[in-house]
Amino acid sequence: MYSSARRLASKVAAYTRDEAGDKAQQYRNLIMRRLLVLLGSSTYIVQDKALSIAVIEGESVEGHKREHIKKRASVHDGALLSEKDPLLRNRRLRHSVKTLLELKDPMILTLVELKDPMILSINLHAAIVDHAKYLDKPILIQHEMDLTQELNSYINAYHTLTQMSSAPFPFPLLQMSFTITDVWLHTLPFALASTIENGYVCALIVFFIHFGFAGINAVSNEIMHPTGADPNDFEIDSYRDRTARGIQGDLSTRWTNLNDRDESSGNNITDDFWIQMTGQDMNNHPSRKPLL
């Protein structure tokens, strides 16, 4: 999902690199804003199991969005949920949300922008195909189809992660596995005692077997919801943040060609990179030294 978003941003930057006008930058900014909102909403839904189930079942995101905003605001204002007067509770809620927005709380910023990713993908697709209004040289049709394919890949990956996040583990299977394991572990010492005469050796063996099964159960509980926000889950927030920074770097300014000239120095982009990395002028560049 994140690789598709980054590829989409980099391809938009590459396909519009020859457009240096203000309207072209408006187009890149439009793609960047809509892609970032889509990225944030998709990540939040994938991380929240209840919200993933609601999306799979076709429920509206807005109702869950209000509940999550209320829970986040209650962390800032502890007396919010205990307030019985509806008018005062709504007033305290608005005040808490406003305060969190002023503090630029990352979760509340994501919740305010949270929308159905399918609607956001439609808006992003509309922005992609609207390039003729912004660019002097419209994007070629094959490039436009390439951008659309990257967006489709993103949505397919989002659906896969949502299904994985919302898939419930059958409780009867979990209950029976724990029951059978406990019965086996509690009856194991009697079976070992009949074959091992040394009681200390028997106890040591039973301890390590118990320790191993307890570790397996603990690991299974930790990875039951791998896309959550627990310490041992996938670093979804880190993936999102790195991808967002990459998207901003791709689309916040125009990409330059490697043979573009810098008006101040007269060097091309690769020459300036060599000067910056070595600290030497172009007279010492290997390409300008005579061959022996």
Distance between the termini: 52 Å
H/E element string? HHHHHHHHHHHH
User: Which oligomeric form is depicted?
Assistant: single chain
* Count of alpha/pi helices: 12
Please describe the biggest sheet, giving its number of strands, its sense, and whether it closes into a barrel.
Answer: none
Name the structural class: mainly alpha
**Are there runs of 5+ residues with pLDDT below 50, and where?**
261-269
Helical amount: 55-70%
% residues in beta strands: under 5%
Overall form: extended
> Which value, in Å, is the CA radius of gyration?
28 Å
Number of strands: 0
Average pLDDT number: 77
Compact summary:
This protein is mostly helical and 292 residues long. 68% of the residues lie in helices and 0% in strands.
Q: What does this 3D model show about the protein?
A:
α4 packs across α5. The longest helix is centred in the first third of the chain and has 26 residues. The radius of gyration is 28 Å and the shape is extended. It is mainly α and 292 residues long.
Task: Provide the fold topology.
Elements lengths: L1 H14 L6 H26 L1 H8 L4 H16 L9 H17 L3 H8 L3 H12 L12 H26 L4 H23 L5 H24 L13 H16 L17 H10 L14
Helix pairs in contact: 1-2, 1-8, 1-11, 2-7, 2-8, 2-11, 3-8, 4-5, 4-6, 7-8, 9-10
